[in-house]
């Protein structure tokens, strides 16, 4: 009998025993094409450069607390990230995962305004149908009704505007650009409602992952968001925990939108699963406020800047940049999109196939014409996950929420090393799973 406390207490899961490129292999020898382990495995499961970096680092020094010492891999990784980061992002604060990154971003925004003498600024605006992590601050920013519901009494008061979700929410006859401007302008309305002097930050994902299924914004949306943030002195926090690190075809997803955030959160693909690591990048202006003010960021966990985690991530980012893997993600992503459209584009329960790079989403609907979501009580996405697993495919489905605003979808996030025949395998197995369930 297992003593592990699993996420799902009513199902028995396979035991992961080894990895081989794009595949996970269980203890019975069954191979699973890994296209959705929450968008972590960007390099696949047996990258020799990352394995060697972890081994070498653990032999040198496994841990040194950042309250006392910095480390060579943390310094080198920060340099490499800043070399490729957009705009004036200038400093990197390392954490152990995505929730820690967004939580730290919220704290940094607050401390920034304390340091510069605007203590009344403490309100965060985020978007509905979003996910920014599971710690209480991050969950407060998240706008997914189901994830928030049971913890609602513990959450901080943050407010939420509409996401940019063209497929479901663009009005009849409205063009994409106008739709984007309309929903971006909701930010201005909300800032004015709360009081500009009280708002410290707006947080959003450039491409929405877990909660909507690879939904990018329309052209012009983020440019307008940036303008509004600048006009009212509100910090723009972009959460690229899932969509960042090359997945959308750019090392940083916001490069596609041509905007530079004040604070940028990354995780998942940063360690590619070889070590748990996340990071928060911030602008020179924010860093300077702390450096020239109190001189101490009042936030931290024991494992921030962990030497082995930063060594692994240094090897990962070196692989991503020297092999130009974001460009490969863009190219293979186009192939995946075409293959999905060919196989599933006419399926009566497939409403939309979308995404950027190797970050694709399939929206499942009860009716294509009216875009009516499937009844969430049917648990269709969860059934597809199970059927796909039986086929030897790992994908990332998400069931709709009962507020009727969010339908079922399947998120696909294959490793950037995926080959043409593996794209065929992915589409064949997914089609079989969908046919079994719908
Ligand atoms: N932000 C986004 C956009 C995410 O998708 C996730 C996780 O899926 C998180 C934050 C939280 O990351 P973690 O699970 O590493 O804490």
Helices and strands in order:
Elements: E1 16-20, E2 23-26, E3 31-34, H1 48-60, H2 72-84, E4 89-95, H3 98-115, E5 123-127, H4 136-141, H5 145-149, E6 159-161, H6 166-169, H7 176-194, E7 199-204, E8 207-208, E9 215-216, H8 221-232, E10 235-239, H9 254-257, E11 263-266, E12 278-283, H10 284-292, H11 307-322, H12 325-344, E13 350-356, E14 359-367, E15 372-373, H13 380-391, E16 393-394, E17 396-398, E18 408-412, H14 420-437
Parallel strand pairs: 3-16, 5-6, 5-7, 7-10, 10-11
Antiparallel strand pairs: 1-2, 2-3, 4-12, 8-9, 11-12, 13-14, 14-15, 14-18, 17-18
The structure holds pyridoxal-5'-phosphate.
The site of pyridoxal-5'-phosphate has 15 residues, from helix 3.
Compact summary:
It holds the Pfam family Aminotran_3. The chain is an alpha/beta fold.
Describe it.
With 438 residues, the chain is of the alpha/beta class. The chain folds into two domains: 16-47 and 324-437, Aspartate Aminotransferase, domain 1, CATH 3.90.1150; 49-322, Aspartate Aminotransferase, domain 2. Helix content is 39%, strand content 18%. It has a seven-stranded mixed sheet, sandwiched between helices. It is globular and about 60 Å long. It starts with 15 loop residues before the first strand and ends with a helix.
